Amino acid sequence: MRLGRKPKGADAMGAMQNEIDITQSLMDNMSIVDSTAAPAASAASRATPTMPPMDMKGVHVQIEEHIVAVVNRDGGLEQMEVKGDLSLVISDPAYANVQVGVVTNNKHNAQVKTHPKVDKRRFNTDAVIALKDAASSFPLSQPIGVLKWRIVSTNEDDIPLTINCWPSLSATGTVDVNIEYELTHPKLELNGVVISIPLPPGAQPTVSDVDGVYEVDRAHSTLEWQIPTIDASNPNGSLDFSVPGADAGLFFPVVVSFTCEKPYYDIDVSGITGADNEAVDFSQNIALIPDQYAVI
Description:
elongated; 2 helices; nine-stranded mixed β-sheet
């Protein structure tokens, strides 16, 4: 009945593009107010943008991760996986042969792979993403994946946001439901968090306590628990409600959605230099996207 543990408190461009397509295919197989207004879409059906829009500079870095975290209602971890990639979008030809310095802390034992055209030895020794052939250049004006990682875990402690859901039958013919969340990775900041709990058809919950706000989505028979931000300053919260009924199993699956602009994998761009070793100004987007985040 929980998600995670119980809370504790010019030349190489054409050839390179072909290899990018092949590498992409191979790596893809490497094995997130009590209202009576019109109901909104349920958390499970909300679309999360892959990258927030922003003005891009001549060199733009995209870090995008997709997380799947599925736990059964008895607490067993069914699946935990994070897939991420770092891509470059170079729009200024003057920066077509940049070198990207990164800082990583591989405490999650991630499988990390560089693009075949990237100097793997230099990445492993110096944490620099650079082309093997100094005379070649990155393709322009398109995302070029230069680094990929994959994290698979069977350890509940690796789940960044744990959800505990405890429905219990009462002697008065109702089901009392307590749900709690805990942020176990305080470096993350989750925004627009929605925890969607199924309700018996036609049921009107009586909410006795809530951190945040809630909304009853009658069209989808769900209670949508909404928390604007979960971060180190707001790592815990709970919701208590009751509904008439006698089946504690009706309150699953609990589905979580959120947006996050920090990566799960500890990676950061320390700096970018051009062919003349001069520092290059760059823009950056980061997105951690919950493809599936649920207690089933």
